[in-house]
Amino acid sequence: MGNSKANSNILIKNKRATFDYELLETFTAGIVLTGTEIKSLRAGKASLVDTYCVVERGEVWVKNMYIAEYFYGTYNNHSERRERKLLLNRKEIRRLETSVRNSGFTIVPTRLFINEKGLAKVAVAIARGKREYDKRESIRARDDKREMDRAFKH
Fold first, then answer.
1. Nearest CA to 9 among 100, 96, 114?
2. DSSP the chain
3. Is residue 64 over pLDDT 60?
4. Cβ of 105: how many Cβ atoms within 10 Å?
5. Bridge partners of 107?
6. Using an 8 Å Cβ cutoff, are 63 and 54 in contact?
7. How many CB atoms lie under 10 A from the CB of residue 21?
């Protein structure tokens, strides 16, 4: 069957996060999953669109994360958008909690991946929402970079 841990090239990105938010500080957290969830995740059937994190009673929870039901899951299957607990140390949780108390800051998951040990991890970032003109600036910078790349290729 081979070593399944070596095949840990699962990486699900939240592309909206970098567009809608200015990412200030990033943390990598473990995530508490059920058996059918990790199997779906290993199959790459997950999405971070419209996900966010909250700190409740000293614990960090990711909400609205989509992990598809496992095809062979039968009655053991999980609900696709259930809240999932993130595993961070106390210092990191405290840092996230104090940042979110400031208005305009939120915690957004940016990447969901399986590390080299075969464990599911989520990269979360303390983020500040971009205003409309910031988004236009991001689009302009991206387009300029694309133009530059085109110019150098020819």
1. 114
2. ---GGG----EEE-HHHHHHEEEEEEEEEEE---HHHHHHHHTT-EE-TT-EEEEETTEEEEES-EEPPPTT-GGGPPPTT--EEEE--HHHHHHHHHHHHSTTEEEEEEEEEE-TTS-EEEEEEEEEEPPHHHHHHHHHHHHHHHHHHHHHH-
3. yes
4. 16
5. 53, 126
6. yes
7. 20
Q: Tokens standing for 112?
A: 């969901």
Split at pLDDT 50, 70, 90, the class of 73 is low
**pTM listed for this prediction:** 0.71
The one-letter amino acid at 131: R
How far is the C-alpha of 150 from the C-alpha of 154, rounded, in Å? 7
CA separation (Å) from 14 to 57, 98, 110?
26, 24, 5
Dihedrals phi, psi of 39, to nearest 5 degrees: -70, -40
